[in-house]
């Protein structure tokens, strides 16, 4: 895959392999300070002992494995990982601090919206029955919001989904496609799509590449005890609203169609 935006900072960061060696030394020091064996640490982190040996020897580590160890030792990622890409401040212009009163109003509107959607489904259902239209197969609900975007202790199985959702959030806030971010990150579109879906466990180097492609610090992407839950939820809601804006055209079309149907019914 060819790119035209030069060598990445992430490439330089991982070129010598020193970062992995540093991580291995930190894990070793923490483990021995607690008088834990590699076998004991492996059990706590739910990893194979050979993985612990590999990491302490300075070999590459994946996001999920590193996160499992950070959780066991209660280490803040900022204490052992370099920042990489500049601190993500390009989204600072977004109005992320909504008042509690406004948020309550918004949530009430959501309740009203749910009632309106149900009525709309009933209308469309009755029209379909009247003209013997075939049933449209039920679409699976979007599962982006089945998990919180903020770190929660003990939820290792959700970590990759959380990480993938965060990539989607920052990509949406930039108005960028997956293809554009894949190109900027020097990763394939297939890989990025699988990572966004929580179906691939990326290497730490890939995490840095994606962070650089998104122009945010890795600290915003890697779930951990350092998470600012309020900020992440605000970013998630903002990204959701931006995605929902694209549906307004379809809503306008639907409004027009219902108006025509009403005219027909009254003649």
Question: What this model shows, in words?
Answer:
Pfam families: HTH_3. This is Transcriptional regulator. Keywords: DNA-binding, Plasmid. Residues 27-80, 167-221 form the HTH cro/C1-type domain. InterPro entries: Cro/C1-type_HTH, Lambda_DNA-bd_dom_sf, TransReg_Diox_bact_type. There is one protein chain. The model is unreliable at 1-5 (pLDDT under 50). The chain contains 13 helices and no strands. It starts with 8 loop residues before the first helix and ends with a helix. It has helices spanning 9-15, 18-33, 38-45, 49-56, 63-73, 100-130, 159-173, 178-185, 189-196, 204-214, 218-221, 229-245, 248-265. With 267 residues, it is mostly helical.
Topology (elements, then pairings):
Layout: H1 9-15, H2 18-33, H3 38-45, H4 49-56, H5 63-73, H6 100-130, H7 159-173, H8 178-185, H9 189-196, H10 204-214, H11 218-221, H12 229-245, H13 248-265
